[in-house]
Predict the structure of C4-dicarboxylate ABC transporter substrate-binding protein.
Amino acid sequence: MKRRTLSTAVLGLALAGGLACVPAAAQTAWDLAAAYPASNFHTQNLAQFTADVDKATGGAFKITLHANASLFKAPEIKRAVQGGQAQIGEIIFANFQNEWQIFGADGQPFLATSFADARKLYEAQKPLLDKKFAEQGMMMLYSVPWPPQGLYTKKPIESAADLKGIKWRAYSPATARIAELVGAQPVTVQAAEFSQALATGVVEATMTSGATGVDSKLYEQLKYYYDLQAWLPKNAVIVNKKAFDGLSKGNQEALLKAGKEAETRGWAAAEKVNTETLATLKAHGMQVLPPSPQLKADMAKVGETMLKEWLDKAGPDGKALIDAYRK
């Protein structure tokens, strides 16, 4: 009897020990690389997106957001996701035009100048983007535009001739080409370094959105904003396909659903932010002005030149894209 009692006790301890060694359900953890500050509406949308994934999976799928280029700089994020150093990241298409011209379609000035036109261009562009990302071992989760791009300067500008020789911040091949066509000096500066570049005199002018103008406090160094509404470049959240395929079905569904909601929310936010940020620029003493007829005409010519150049480089895919957009 004593022996049986001892054996039962030992068995109980062994079972307890064995159960203690069984791990709890593993939590999935991803890193999301982003280039813009926490205050930016794209980053705020990403924060809501990660919270939605966390909530939908009961905390089983955690995505850590690394904002303000703290994990990878903006031009490095696409390669990092493709190579698996980050499972997910946010890019701006225009940064990668030299790799594949279709990435630069929404950076062509005066091609799509309203949110409605930007949406139409995106619908024409999306099948090509999905195919390219699939070839590169990635998938696009969602895309959101920036507000329309305008011109920031230290001095009044009446025509393109007034931009000759000015130090112009470029963040993409398209913005560098605009500088060349108006006779400015392009200087490549990413968003995270923009404020410092202005403070040290590295740049004196740029074309970007009201949102970036507020994020980077351009009103502290630049005094004029010309509301050209030149183009609406888009950001995209991309995912490493192997990492996605490795998720449970439930986590995949949660990610896709949160991405769809983030795209809808982001497009609405971009329109709201456009109105709010221009008001903020004015409140800080910046002159927010319409372009003069001459400046508008000069920049329209720049757009015509650049679209022709882009079509020559983009080939049949580029022509098909523009034809679909203009239907």
DSSP finds ten helices and eleven strands in the chain. The chain has one domain: 27-326.
